[in-house]
Amino acid sequence: MGYMVEGVYHEGDDVTQTLPSGAWERSRSTVRNWIGDATFPAEAGRYHLFVAWNCPWAHRTLLTRAIKGLDAITVSYAKPNRDAQGWIFDAEGEFADPLLGVRAVHEVYSADQMRYTGRLTVPVLWDKVQGRMVSNESADIVRMLNASFDGADLYPDGLADEINQWNDLIYDTVNNGVYRAGFASTQAAYEKAAHQVFETLDRIDAHLADHPWLCGNQFTEADLRLFPTLARFDVAYHYAFRCNLKKLSDYVNLWPYAKRIYAMPGVSETVRFDIYKQGYFSASEKRNPLGIVPIGPMVDWGTGA
Ligand SMILES: N[C@@H](CCC(=O)N[C@@H](CS)C(=O)NCC(=O)O)C(=O)O
After folding, report:
1. How far apart are CA 84 and CA 112, in angstroms?
2. How far is the centre of ligand 1, averaged over its atoms, from the C-alpha of 216 (Å)?
3. What confidence score (pLDDT) does residue 180 get?
4. Closest residue (by CA) to atom 10 of ligand 1?
5. Fewest CB atoms less than 10 Å from the CB: which of 105, 139, 158, 189?
6. Has 55 been annotated as catalytic?
7. Contacts of 96 (CB under 8 A, 6+ apart)
8. What average pLDDT does the chain have?
9. For residue 16, is pLDDT > 70?
10. Which atom number of ligand 1 is nearest to the Cα of residue 3?
11. Which of 112, 227, 111, 88 is nearest to 166 (CA)?
């Protein structure tokens, strides 16, 4: 997949993300600038996102852009399947990079000239004026786009604590929990992570019985951050990551809630189920050696308005 040391790209995987227990751990993002700081003013038309449709962390940033109507932020979409160069772009078409014309995300990291060291992840928020990366941490990008630009307030002051509490639980046991299940390398680590996924989904399903949204009557960042995992659940995680105690569509409250989010203006345009399958079932020596993509399941998201 590749990594970078002092701005130089290397193929292969040096940074092991598997702990001795067989549990899998996500490495931390390190580019953490902030729109609104003196160096990165909140100007319309100044910023660009590098994403991949299938990446759930990138999906958060696309949702924020869509829900707040931030079309002035332009976007480059990488191809669903990574290769030895990591996330790559075509020369033209829907997976081309119209901004810098690069053929791989690692070239975005080196174009910044900050001698980056670490993994080459999406999303990346880019400042077109200075030719610099603002951030490669999706949680920060969601927050700063919300705070710096107009549109619905996804993180209102009065709900901050409640949003943060949901985020902590959902990040650990659901957003990243499905990856801890899917990438575990022992039975015990897999079972622990997979059970945690369903404990939290069960808890949310019960909560939604008498609350329209996680924090009551208002759609917030907590709902936004849950959605990418729900959108990928039945088509990818259920099977590819063995999170198969239940399907999302089995849940009495969670499933209609997910469809209500999908029906919000702009949201369905951030979702590509075909690409989720292609990405999560791409050939992987450990998880799917032949790279065969399943034909199902059939899920109807279209009844949630
Ligand atoms: N903390 C990052 C994580 C992003 C992340 O892990 N992205 C994955 C794709 S879903 C990636 O680009 N991985 C490439 C790699 O690790 O080599 C964020 O939330 O922004």
Report:
1. 21
2. 30
3. 98
4. 55
5. 158
6. yes
7. 76, 89, 90
8. 95
9. no
10. 17
11. 227
